[in-house]
């Protein structure tokens, strides 16, 4: 079966790092498959200063945090971490954050996001994250193409 691909982005996170509802990305695998050119970012919301102080320096949280006002929550601190850095050692600490959301991003978006993180350019973390999420992620849709062939 020949596969075709496309880039898609989440509408709830389009130009937005603080949506009204927080849901991780799921795909209908009957229709789509993730491409191998994606990586996951996990966004953590409502994390206390105590949580942030326990995270390793290599995560570079000071360059990856942003503000998100959540209803009925006094803590507006949020940050993102790429999946390669998340480990079992930190899960108990991160569980005290109010919300976490896992979102796929393209490797190109992640590379751009991390390059800017390392360079420390003057753009806010939230704006950089927003741009990366707007770049979307890639999916293959071979099954859809096979269903549509008779219609052509």
Could you characterize what this model shows?
- The protein has 152 residues and is of the alpha+beta class.
- The protein is built from five helices and seven strands; from the N terminus they run βββαββαβααβα.
- The mean pLDDT is 81.
- The protein is 26% helix and 23% strand.
- The protein has a four-stranded antiparallel sheet. It has a three-stranded antiparallel sheet with strand order 1-7-2, with no helix packed on it.
- The longest helix is centred in the last third of the chain and has 13 residues, at 107-119.
- It starts with a strand and ends with a helix.
- Helix 3 runs antiparallel to helix 4 (125-135).
Q: What is the N-to-C order of secondary-structure elements (H for helix, E for strand)?
A: EEEHEEHEHHEH
- From the N-terminal CA to the C-terminal CA, the straight-line distance is 17 Å
Provide the structure class. Answer: alpha+beta
Largest sheet: 4 strands, antiparallel
Number of helices: 5
Report strand order across the widest sheet: 4-5-3-6
Question: How helix-rich are the residues, as a percent range?
Answer: 25-40%
Q: What spatial form do the alpha-carbon principal axes imply?
A: globular
The residue ranges in which pLDDT falls below 50 over 5 or more consecutive positions are none
Tell me what portion of residues adopts beta-strand conformation: 15-25%
Counting DSSP E segments of at least 2 residues, the number of strands comes to 7
Mean of residue pLDDT?
81
State Rg. 17 Å
């Amino acid at each position: 079966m020949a596969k075709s691909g496309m880039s898609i982005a989440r509408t709830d996170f389009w130009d937005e790092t603080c949506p009204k509802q927080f849901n991780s990305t799921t795909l209908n695998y009957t229709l789509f498959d993730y491409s191998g050119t994606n990586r996951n970012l996990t966004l953590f919301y409502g994390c206390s200063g105590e949580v942030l102080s326990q995270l390793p320096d290599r995560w570079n949280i000071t360059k990856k945090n942003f503000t998100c006002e959540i209803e009925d929550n006094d803590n507006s601190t949020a940050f993102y971490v790429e999946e390669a850095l998340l480990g079992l050692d930190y899960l108990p600490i991160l569980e005290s954050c109010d919300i976490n959301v896992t979102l796929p991003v393209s490797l190109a978006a992640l590379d751009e996001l991390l390059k800017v993180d390392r360079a420390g350019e003057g753009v806010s973390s939230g704006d950089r994250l927003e741009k990366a999420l707007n770049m979307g992620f890639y999916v293959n849709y071979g099954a859809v193409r096979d269903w549509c062939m008779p219609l052509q």
